[in-house]
């Protein structure tokens, strides 16, 4: 397992899981949001985004964090494993709210050299709210990934569904054990 894509609804914990997984495997951690977002919350064109993604995925091994469903043909062409972080709606929403609140208070730059930070207004009182996005996409993502996991076009991929933090921790610990033997 050398090329892994971790997917899940915003707030599901996919970035935390991806970073931990990349660290345990000693693989590069690739964040799709960092590839997509430019300074001042400007979006990359598909041409720019796809070019960056292809370049990053040309490495021998990686853990790719992110959905961007329009990129499935690119990112899943040579992927070995797709891990779906699929926690309950209540847990995912709680995590999204907690993360948005912390980011709004700390004003931490989300992606290097972009200046992009979350604000209370943007996170909680905007049509672009990540919390609203989580609410709107949770069920749709569950249907989409359930279907994609069954799609014969992706039979070359090992699909893993992680449904709670205990299962996620056990999965990573098992990988660590497997590498030591």
From TrEMBL:
Highest taxon listed in the record's lineage: Bacteria
Record-linked Gene3D superfamilies: P-loop containing nucleotide triphosphate hydrolases
InterPro entries: Cytidylate_Kinase-2, P-loop_NTPase
Keywords of the record: Kinase, Transferase
Tagged with keyword Ubl conjugation: no
PANTHER family: TOXIN, YALI0E33011P
Protein name: (D)CMP kinase
Source organism (scientific name): Vibrio gelatinilyticus
């Amino acid at each position: 397992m050398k090329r892994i894509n971790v997917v899940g609804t915003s707030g599901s914990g996919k970035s935390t899981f991806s970073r931990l997984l990349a660290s345990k495997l000693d693989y590069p951690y690739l964040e799709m949001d960092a590839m997509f977002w430019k300074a001042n919350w400007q979006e990359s064109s598909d041409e720019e985004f796809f070019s960056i993604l292809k370049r990053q995925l040309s490495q021998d091994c990686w853990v790719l964090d992110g959905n961007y469903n329009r990129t499935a043909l690119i990112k899943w062409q040579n992927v070995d494993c797709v891990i779906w972080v699929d926690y309950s709606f209540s847990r995912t929403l709680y995590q999204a709210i907690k993360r948005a609140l912390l980011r709004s208070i700390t004003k931490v730059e989300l992606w290097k050299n972009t200046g992009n930070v979350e604000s209370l207004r943007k996170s909680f009182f905007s049509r672009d709210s990540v919390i609203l996005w989580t609410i709107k996409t949770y069920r749709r993502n569950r249907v989409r990934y359930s279907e994609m996991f069954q799609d014969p076009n992706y039979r070359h991929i090992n699909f893993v569904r992680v449904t709670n933090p205990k299962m996620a921790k056990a999965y990573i610990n098992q990988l660590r054990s497997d590498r030591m033997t």
